[in-house]
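Researcher: Please predict.
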Amino acid sequence: MVQASSHFIAICSDSIGETAEAVVQATMRQFELPDTEIKRFMNVRDEDELSRVMEEVAERRGFVAYTLVQPELREAMKEEAVRLNVRAVDIMGPMMQAFADTFHNDPKEKPGLLHRMDDNYFRRVEALDFAVQYDDGKDVSAILKADIVLLGVSRISKTPLSMFLAHKGYKTVNIPIVPELTPPAQLKDVQHGRVFGLTIQPELLLKIRSERLKVMGLPNNVQYATSARVEDEIAYAQSLFKELSCPVIDVTDKAIEETAGLIIRMLQ
């Protein structure tokens, strides 16, 4: 007997299930659902295996999101969903049908094409290595090698944004802005449009820094987490952005994906 959780969502895929899980995770942000378990069932290639997946979903009273490119497996999924009274959401099927109907072309129906090791894959790997190696201004010489240069004060999410952009294939370096430190001279030599300044509402940054100190077991009355210091740092960063004539993005209440999307659109 499988132990039931409050909310159970199965990801069923004939590849690795990353696409379906990304859609589920994005949708979950719109709901307050504590104790939700997402479980991936990867490389499902036959009907017997699919039936076992659906039996578990039915037992745990959840639903399944699936990406199956082979028509016979999609049909089997629909039959199992009816038999077991399980809600099944086809992530790719309607989109593939739209392509076929609109462009009068048949799909390859080959699993895993999104993740094949092509030039895009190696570019992303290289970009991720770059982002890790040069994170947080470790080597300012990377500024002139980067596709994107992020500037911002401490705890403004420069690192996770760098990693997300790297996953999209952009070599990204992030440079911390501190009033007591002279900005790297290389910033003035970067091609126009590749440097982006990040700013945030002082109240939110103060809260983020205070929480960080609490997690680290440090007192919250240090200068790093005072209103005066936060406002001074943000004002200093704004003056630098103005001097560099770079685009400025307010990340307050923005998801990493949203900020990255803005940067990519401006870069293009």
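Model: The chain has a mean pLDDT of 90.
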